[in-house]
Design brief:
The chain is α/β, with parallel strands linked by helices. It has three domains: 153 residues, DNAb Helicase, Chain A (Orthogonal Bundle); 260 residues, 3-Layer(aba) Sandwich (Rossmann fold), CATH 3.40.50.300; 27 residues. The protein is 49% helix and 13% strand. It catalyses: ATP + H2O = ADP + phosphate + H(+).
Length: 481
């Protein structure tokens, strides 16, 4: 049984190989971690090696011994056994064997955990399933972390991050590309672990807005998970095809296209066949089900970089709690899931109708339905606002009132194919708030960057540096219409 769970000879050989050929530790330190070693003394030696790597000091017998003595964990007998072991050239096979046995030990520990939460703590089955799935995901993703990170570890990781950003050429885009140049400058993209809320009143185009981001990502070959609780997957695909081909959505819906448009559509279909887009349109999902589905999908498709939920208020709660408590649990669960999977999660949200009684109908944070917990948990909150929606609505109300009074009505509203729109950054945990101007193409349900970027941004900060921001967005050639 023990032979199936660890191999001390293999562990000694790996550590010995590192001491005699330290240059290979760069690769091994990425593949292996402390918990992959069974013997505690071997774990201590591996940690000492990591410390020396961070300090850029030699990884040899004397420096390792010095680190272990400092930590009061030096075992001379174990060190002699490692030095006596034969170094190996094919470390890959040994590492694979060590990782395999480590995985089995973690799975054995998980079975004990399942028994504890099921029998001893008598937790509800749904909660047990969530605990098990989370632990299993951590094990399969090799995501074993300590309770605390010490300062040397944090400073090392921070410097690596800064070097990575420098290697990008000081690009403003750090997170996932939003698909809009000026919004990228304001937000630096949607960051890993971010919970992003996109909120608007009905008919403002919040789904259309996020589909523009989705389309931009899948054309770059990025993976997207989309939970569509409001409309079937086929309708989402129709909108994406309209965005890509510039064929009006209504024409796509009824198949009213000329030969050139049919050709463009076939080209777009070929692109979408290879797209890494995964849509769940079940229509009703609670936070536990969503966690389970997204963990499984991310495990199967690591290329997924963002998850979208359309929309938050349709998600069902767990148990018989009050709705505001359910929404609080949902928003907190989404934020924790984003951090766990190290990817942004974008949730669409409805706004209260109370804002429509104001003269200035631009949304504020307090307009979000059940806003308390959502406002607290979100890293970024964006509002989609189109003034023409209200102008059209007011025109119809005037027309209705005139007809009721028997008066002749002359329309003054001119319907536009392209409308000015605003993306209002209501909250940004790590950046400025402000407004970004976009153009909404109604027939295509497509948002595009406004022609003039220089005058497009209003920000609450005066010293936001946008001049040095250079965002390289792929130039996608649209099929001819």
């Amino acid at each position: 049984m023990q032979d199936n769970l660890y191999n001390l000879a293999f562990e000694r050989s790996i550590l010995s190989s590192i001491i005699f050929e330290p240059s290979q530790f760069d690769d091994l330190s990425v593949t292996l971690n402390k918990d992959d070693f069974y013997l505690p003394a071997h774990q201590d030696i591996f940690v000492a090696m990591l410390t020396l790597l961070q300090k850029d000091q030699p990884i040899d017998e004397e420096f390792i011994k010095k680190e272990l003595i400092k930590a009061k964990k030096f075992d001379e007998q174990v060190m002699l056994e490692i030095l006596a072991a034969n170094p190996i050239s094919n470390t890959a096979a040994y590492v694979e064997e060590i990782k395999d046995k480590s995985l089995k030990r973690h799975l054995l520990t998980l079975t004990t955990e399942i028994k504890r939460v099921t029998v001893e703590e008598e937790l509800p089955s749904a909660e047990v399933v969530d605990i098990v799935e989370k632990k299993l995901y951590e094990i399969t993703q090799d995501n074993q972390t300590s309770d605390f990170k010490d300062s040397p570890k944090m400073t090392f990781d921070t410097m690596e991050y800064i070097k990575e950003m420098k290697a990008r050429g000081n690009s403003v885009l750090v997170g996932v590309d939003t698909g809009f140049k000026e919004l990228n400058k304001m937000t630096t993209g949607f960051g890993k672990g971010d919970l992003v809320i996109i909120a608007a009143r009905p008919a403002m185009g919040k789904t259309s807005f996020i589909l523009n981001t989705v389309n931009n990502l899948i054309l770059q070959g990025k993976g997207v998970a989309f939970f569509s609780l409001e409309m079937p997957a086929e309708q989402l695909m129709l909108r994406l095809l309209s965005i890509q081909t510039s064929i009006p959505l209504q024409k796509l819906r009824v198949g009213d296209m000329n030969d050139e448009q049919w050709s463009s559509l076939n080209g777009a279909i070929d692109k979408m066949n290879s797209a890494k887009l995964f849509v769940d349109d079940q229509g009703s999902v609670n936070i536990n089900q969503l966690r389970s589905k997204l963990r499984k999908l991310k495990n199967q498709h690591p290329e997924i970089e963002i998850a979208v939920i359309d929309y938050l208020q349709i998600m069902s709660g767990i148990g018989n709690q009050d709705r505001h408590l359910q929404v609080s649990e949902i928003s907190r669960g989404l934020k924790m899931l984003a951090r766990e999977l190290e990817m942004p999660i974008v949730a669409l949200s409805q706004l209260n109708r109370g804002l429509e009684s104001r003269n200035d109908k631009r949304p504020m944070l307090s307009d979000i339905r059940e806003s308390g917990s959502i406002e607290q948990d979100a890293d970024i909150i964006l509002f989609v606002y189109r003034d023409d929606v209200y102008l059209y609505k007011e025109e119809k109300e005037r027309e209705k009132a005139a007809k009721a009074e028997g008066k002749e009505f002359t329309s003054t509203y001119v319907e536009k194919e392209e409308e000015e729109s605003e993306i209002i950054i209501g909250k940004q945990r790590n950046g400025p708030t402000g407004h970004v101007k976009l153009i909404f193409q109604k027939k295509l349900t497509r948002f595009v960057d406004a022609p003039s970027y220089a005058s497009a941004v209003e920000t609450v900060y005066e010293n936001v540096d946008t001049k040095s921001a250079q965002v390289d967005v792929p130039n996608v050639e649209m099929p001819p219409i």
